[in-house]
Amino acid sequence: MRKSLLLAVLVILGSFAFAQVKIGVNLELSGRFAAIGNQTLNGIKVAHMQMPKVIGQEVQLVICDDETTREGSIACAQRFVNEGVVGVLGAISSSMSIPAAEVLQDAGIIMISTSSTNPQTTQIGDYIFRMAYTDDFQGKLAAAYVVKDLGAKRVAIFRQIDDDYSYGLAGFFDATAKKLGAKTLVQDYVANTVDFTAQLNNIRGFKPDAIYYSGFCAEGAPFMKQLREQGFTQQVVGADASDDPQCPEGAGAAFNNWIFTGFATPNLIPDPEAKKRAEAFKAKYFASIKNAKPGDFNGFVLAGADSYNVLVAAIKKAGATDVKAVRDALANMEHYPGVSGDITYKGTDGTPKDRTIGFYQYKVKSANDWKKIELFGKSTAEVQ
Amino acid sequence: MAASKITSRSTIISLLIGAVFVVLLGARINSLENYTFARVVQDFLNALTLGSLYALIALGYTMVYGIIRLINFAHGEIFMLGSYFAFYAMTLTPLPWAISLLVTIILGGTVLLVLRSLFNLEEPKRTFVLSLVIFGGTFFLLTFRKLGWVEGLTLSMLATGVAGVLLEAIAYKPLRGAPRESMLITAIAASFFLQNFGQLVFGARVRGFNAQTILNKPLNFHIGPETVYFTGILVVVPLITALLLWVLNLFVSRTRLGKAMRATAQDAEVAQMMGVNVNQVIALTFFIGSILAAAAGVMYAIRFGQIHPLMGLMPGIKAFTAAVIGGIGSLPGAVLGGLLLGFIEIYVVSLFPTLSAYKDVFAFVLLILILLFRPSGLVGEDLTEKV
Lengths: 384, 387
Hints:
The complex is a heterodimer.
Chain A: H1 2-17, E1 20-27, H2 34-50, E2 53-54, E3 57-65, H3 70-83, E4 87-90, H4 94-107, E5 110-113, H5 120-123, E6 128-130, H6 135-149, E7 154-160, H7 164-179, E8 183-189, H8 197-204, E9 210-213, H9 217-229, E10 235-238, H10 246-251, E11 259-263, H11 272-288, H12 299-318, H13 323-331, E12 336-338, E13 341-343, E14 356-366, E15 369-379, H14 380-383
Helix pairs in contact in A: 2-12, 3-4, 6-7, 12-13
Chain B: H1 2-31, H2 37-68, H3 75-92, H4 97-119, H5 124-144, H6 149-172, H7 180-202, E1 207-208, E2 221-223, E3 226-228, H8 232-254, H9 256-266, H10 268-273, H11 278-304, E4 306-307, H12 313-326, H13 331-351, H14 359-373
Antiparallel strand pairs in B: 1-4, 2-3
Helix pairs in contact in B: 2-8, 2-11, 2-12, 2-13, 3-6, 3-7, 3-11, 3-12, 4-5, 4-6, 6-11, 8-9, 9-11, 12-13, 12-14, 13-14
């Protein structure tokens, strides 16, 4: 009796002394998307360093690795429900974000996916937000670029059929490309495919002018190697999943000239104020992350940082860690000055209003000697 | 009487299924547009390469199963280790002489110890010559120049063979008398351990394996107006698989150690009573099986251009399936199963493009069908015990 009383006093005292705001971080830190997951985590960590406190309390990041599996992501979400976090940042991919979002929506916990682009993610409920644009926009832009700018009349599309992101994006691309008058041929593969020779043989008769690949680097590297070996010289266009050093590092010179859409880097952000903030953040990033390679800084880092920033801003505005109040503050957020651009959630389903997509191209000499050049940026406001 | 009736009925059924299958396939090929002869040849070459790779991994599976009736689930991870060893041998060389000396002593010493215990090299003169060759050779290879794929492959095969023997000594040997399920679970645990160990030591990121070798050289040829694209590796992989199968068959059927292996496979206890050193035979099996896995790992890495710590998982499962289809325990069966799997994977995608995501389903449906009609695999001996 006395012991438990003592314990209770200690717990109460402890909670006063170490009042903490807990924020969950659910990311792909190992497994197939490990590279992007760790970039995002670094972004969140640097943002945390810049703003370690909110409403007078320390912010504690509870980091959970979902190992790039759906089960892992659900387990992380359930852990956060038990730990009583205010909100969860991540996951990066749609396939891991959607199952976690279902758990967190049911439990009434805020989730901000850093880079899930499948439109479905934020439609799961009112507690689910994202930092990215959606794939209908990304697919539309990419298709317009391939058909109009590259002048392709016949486009072969490769999609990973067991991934929500890749499958959805390929669909939007296909629809827009057809609308613009191009002929398309879709080829499917599954996660961890390494042999693409049969699919490549299938598109040989179709004689494509360009190839669109909506998948990830784990499969993209062997894909590109075989594509070039099999005598295809066409331009290949990918999406934000190829904004990952594993692509050029995995395939080496075969990846040269690959064009892809992705989160805008500081140079491509049109708003000069936002650009300045992004540049400042970039400097801070390289000052705080040890051994950071230049190729490791990209839009995923900015998205990670901003997911932390908006959640902390919402807590500050709500003035409490009451989840409902924080959610309302987040849902009514207007023109938050984020490092990835201006962020407005008011009147949307949880997708920020004005996002910028960058077009990039890889210039690869070898696996260790490559760079990413920035072509141009397009913002959602400008297109719609 | 009743038995033969059943057999003749199942033969008729399988013949009927086969006939329907062939007719459907023919109709399908006819109905496809643009499926020219050049594309048929291209698909055939691709399937042959993929199938040979599976066969090479399946050989190791089947050998271990044949001797100690253990499905070594860690075989896929041994395969991964093989590709990483070759990767480091080919990218880090030439090493500074001090480091190279250290590596030589560690690697050469272990190799020497393992080789001595495997092949009964007790004679001092022989040991001396062998150690000179191994230490001198390793040091020479590591110190002076960048290794090519042949030297990388050789070094990796040796190192992986040793890793396989160590795995056996640490994980399986203490369980020799235990129920078979314990060994099976240990094998799964070893597989998980090596995957995570790989992520820790080699890093979780994908690495490019882009050594420009003669194997990547394009050797395209023309059929009419169309080109068939293929590279050196499409020739080398089936050749290496055929060669290794031949050498293994010779080894198992003609040599003393091979005889000891067969005796152990039949009955380990009786073999031991007859003076066969069973521990040595089992270690040797793991050594050879791991060498085959390393060869497959290096070929796989050169073919697909990337390696990562989890790369052994899918090929491991596929090769296991191949070994079961062919009849686990049988060497030619493993090669047959591997080739069959490779051909199915390629031809499902090219004949039924809309079903290409389900190519694995076809492979596993085939597995079920074969197990229904021939429970011991295509060329497997009839075994009453199965894991």
